[in-house]
Amino acid sequence: MLSVKSLPFLQHQPHALKSVFLSTFRSHTILSPSTTRRALRLPLTALSLLRDVPASPRSYSPTMSSSDQIIEHLVFFAVSPDAAPSKPDEMISGLRSLTSLDSVAHLTAGPIFKNRSSAFGKFTHMLHSRYRSKSDLGSYTGDPAHVKVVKESVLPVCDDIMAVDWVADVAGGVVVPPPGSALRVTLLKPKEGIAAEEKAELMRVVGGIKESFPELVDYVSFGENFSPARAKGFELGFIAVFPGVKELEALDAMGEMVELQKEKVRHLLESVFVVDYAIPQQSSSSL
């Protein structure tokens, strides 16, 4: 029989939390061994789906106040399979050199760790950068150093490029994800003609991953794309930042819980693009 003594991780939780967890599991007359093991291995994450009390946030070293906005800029590159083996590395080296530009608050570039979208499986590399304003993003785009890298190192080796930009409030005020962090980047294309209320609900559910999985996700960023020209119809962008690849993969191990989140918005979506990216130790800039 389930009890607080048999579940040591509950002993230091509030009484109301213990009661909800135990009553929920006792209400199921049949639980498969694999389901029970998964639940008991992931105590705080499982509890987060049952409670109204938010988990204690991780400690941050914010570089901007939580009320400040940032501009997210993501670019995805489909390197040609015919490109010489050295060319992708040259491209990434050129892109990383742009961290020295005054307009850039953060920039990282490298191979995609895992592309989870079969329809867009050709994309092999990505760039993620952040700016203090749209004006700074414009300065970066038009800077001669950026133009040179794109012309000489990117366009000659890429079969396709996709890019999105959005304005975001980042929880905790974090601007620069620490080296070694892992990102799950999701782009969403809502079904044509959905109501504004439905789009708002879509954003609410997607943005709520931090509250649903507080022990795994450091913080999230999401917003509406304001640069449609190269976005292939994707209107909404979302980034979940994890402490590392281990935490990102732990989320994947919770298949049933993740599917519950997806099911809430699946009927509103025409297309989804998802990739995972691990920030190299040496490629994250500082303010």
TrEMBL record:
PROSITE patterns: S_R_A_B_BARREL. It holds the Pfam family Dabb. It comes from the Eukaryota. Residues 71-166, 182-277 form the Stress-response A/B barrel domain. SMART domains: Dabb (SM00886). Homodimer. This is Stress-response A/B barrel domain-containing protein.
